[in-house]
């Protein structure tokens, strides 16, 4: 699916401030404070994809892998002013291609219940999975 007027790019040079600002706009947070995005992506990610309005980053997703057949989708985000225009679908579609080209067979994603429709539209199917928050009480 083509995103409405956004330029979708794989493995683009990451501007840590721009990516943190995107997360802040979408989630009301400052983004990562433990290490730079660019360093983490270079070290852990198989692929990352961004959507751009000119020079402005308006969407992002990345995938980390196990070195084999499995990868995990992380940090999917679209600027609130760009949501519901196909940006999310476009970046997830692109990253599926990128991780498949890297030899990945299974792409996993965890998400909150209100995002089930979005991820179903991206082609994910429901599965049973377990989740544990380390160092915290069992309740989330």
Please, could you describe this protein's structure?
With 140 residues, this protein is of the alpha+beta class. It has one domain (7-121): Aminopeptidase (3-Layer(aba) Sandwich), CATH 3.40.630. It contains 4 helices and 5 strands. Strands 1-2-3-4-5 form a 5-stranded mixed sheet. Helix 3 links the parallel strand 4 and strand 5 (106-108).
Give the key terms.
140 residues, alpha+beta, Aminopeptidase, 5-stranded mixed sheet, 4 helices, 5 strands, 29% helix
Distance between the termini: 35 Å
Instruction: Please report the total strand number as a whole number.
Output: 5
Main-sheet strand order equals 1-2-3-4-5
What is the structural class?
A: alpha+beta
CATH superfamily: Gcn5-related N-acetyltransferase (GNAT)
Query: How can the largest sheet be summarized?
Result: 5 strands, mixed
Per CATH, the architecture is 3-Layer(aba) Sandwich
What shape does the CA trace take? globular
How much helix, percentage-wise, in residues? 25-40%
Give the ordered list of helices and strands. Answer: EHHEEEHEH
CATH topology: Aminopeptidase
- What is the class in the CATH system? Alpha Beta
Rg over CA atoms, rounded to whole Å, is 15 Å
Query: Low-confidence parts lasting 5 or more residues at pLDDT below 50?
Result: none
Averaged pLDDT, please?
90
Strand content: 25-35%
Q: Count up the helices.
A: 4
Domain module tally: 1
